[in-house]
């Protein structure tokens, strides 16, 4: 299973999932430009510049079948990767992400730094201990802004996959409502499930085991190792 992080986030968000998923699932986490060991690389603003090399890496390094999981921006990137990989992908799991044909909403990538930080804080995406370190936040905001530009660029995408989709949403998510997430059903001809969890945009941080149990059942059903 390959996990793709949310805007401004990194692969470390999923490191704890390996134990939760168990030995039957081989976990891979995408490290995108502009964060973690690729911090020196500029973050990109076009989805294809993320999804194309990621799809190539998966094709080269990971044997089929593959399950893709993406949270928020990661869900949109995972969708684009699934389009490129075709039959190698057995299941797409998206989380807290509006269906790609819907407008992202609010154009947060156009806000100034204070506005962007406030927007992300409202969603719960900035750890409290990080808020006191404005110098560090200043280094992270360009990557967040670039990622949100990627999200905005998906508006109007209506491609349909021959891949089953499971979509998660939080009951109190102001960015991706249950109706927004349920609209992913229009992007597959191979089956769709909606899973609603209590919480906001980052609901999965509250109870990751509840999320991974569903993901584990998906991988078992698809025969992913």
TrEMBL record:
Residue ranges constituting the Thioesterase domain according to the UniProt record: 2-219
InterPro entries tied to this protein: AB_hydrolase_fold (IPR029058), TEII (IPR012223), Thioesterase (IPR001031)
The organism's place on the tree of life at top rank: Bacteria
Pfam families: Thioesterase
Biological processes, Gene Ontology terms: lipid biosynthetic process
Gene3D superfamilies: alpha/beta hydrolase
Family in the record: Belongs to the thioesterase family.
This protein's name: Surfactin synthase thioesterase subunit
